[in-house]
Design a protein that fits this description.
Elements lengths: L8 E5 L9 H12 L5 E4 L2 E4 L3 E3 L1 H11 L4 E8 L5 H14 L4 E6 L5 H5 L8 H15 L5 E4 L4 E5 L11 E4 L3 H10 L2 E5 L3 H14 L13 E8 L3 H16 L12 E2 L1 H13 L4 E7 L3 H18 L1
Parallel strand pairs: 1-2, 1-13, 2-5, 5-6, 6-9, 9-10, 10-11, 11-12, 11-13
Antiparallel strand pairs: 3-4, 7-8
Helix pairs in contact: 2-3, 3-5, 5-6, 6-7, 9-10
């Protein structure tokens, strides 16, 4: 996926089978992805989520980028507020040297588990403001120019990170709140929607582009996207059961809370669910697939890619 155009890119998650266990098995899954219609991989990020679960998004992005020198890797989403922005800018600069033009930096504020923030020394009530400050610092540093910044959270004098990524790393902002839309308008290159309807997706992206005028960002080449969980099986009830089990294990709340915006069933049914979002401006789709095994997941996500693109 080129970061310089707005063609549709559909990807799947780059964890579990690709990042754990026997390397030969991981390599075989990556080889299957390379031969599929899947455009990119995305990776999540958590430090200590509900009973200690987690993964470092930047480390995993580097691993995936090294395993496939052609694939784009989307961090969806990185909990930037839990880190100091200067070393994060260094990590992104370093990653851009080994994977130039193949990293998209998705940023979110988290919040489903307040304790995750507390153990990192962060007051959960400040995560939005802290994220805004971090975004300003990271974006400034990735230009390669000197950055000084003063806020309630940071005092940075004459920080410099070189080399600046070439091309620049796109920043996409996740979240459903009004604050997330304002954050995208001020600091993002696009919005990553989650758990919303196609109508709301269109409304939100239009609102972002109007708000951006307040920040003199009318010339931004927007790239908006959608991230979602899906259950895949020809047996719809089985697909639902697999999806519900995985989402409930992750979020510790009943699947009913997610079901309206988390499709399940065959590849055809999921593609039909997603097509209205694409028609309403989503040109990046991140699919967290839940199925009986990793090979089937890749096969079905690839089929979803083909079905959506053939329908456009």
């Amino acid at each position: 996926m080129s970061q310089e155009d707005n063609k549709l890119s559909i990807g799947t998650v780059g964890s579990n089978a690709l990042l754990m266990g026997d390397f030969q098995v991981r390599a075989e899954v990556m080889a299957q992805i390379k031969e599929s219609a899947i455009d990119h991989l995305f990776i999540a990020d958590h430090v200590s989520f509900h009973d200690g679960f987690g993964m470092d998004g930047l480390i995993n992005a580097a691993t995936l980028a090294a395993m496939n020198p052609d694939i784009t890797v989307f961090l969806g989403v990185y909990l930037l507020a839990l880190r100091h922005p200067v070393p994060v800018a260094r990590q992104l600069s370093t990653l851009s040297l080994s994977a130039p033009g193949r990293i998209i930096f998705g940023v979110g504020i988290g919040g489903e588990d307040r304790h995750e923030m507390e153990v990192c020394g962060i007051d959960p009530s400040t995560r939005g403001r802290r994220t805004n400050d971090c975004l300003q610092v990271v974006r400034s540093l990735l230009t390669g120019k000197s950055c000084s910044f003063e806020s309630e959270f940071f005092s940075i004098q004459d920080a410099i990170i070189k080399p600046a990524p070439a091309p620049q790393i796109p920043v996409m902002i996740g979240g459903r709140s009004t604050a997330a839309l304002k954050r995208t308008a001020a600091y993002g290159d696009g919005w990553l929607g989650v758990w919303c309807s196609p109508k709301r997706f269109k409304q939100a992206t239009e609102e972002i582009e109007l708000l951006a005028a307040n920040h003199a960002r009318e010339d931004t080449k927007w790239k908006h996207g959608l991230q979602l969980w899906v259950g895949l099986d020809e047996d719809k009830s089985k697909a639902r059961a697999i999806l519900a089990k995985e989402m409930e294990a992750m979020y510790k709340i009943p699947f009913d809370a997610f079901e309206k915006y988390s499709p399940y069933g065959s590849a055809e049914e999921v593609a039909e669910f997603l097509l209205p979002y694409v028609k309403n401006g989503a040109n990046v789709i991140n699919i967290k697939a839940c199925a009986s095994n990793p090979v089937y997941e890749v096969e079905q996500v690839s089929k979803i890619c083909e079905l959506i693109k053939s329908a456009l």
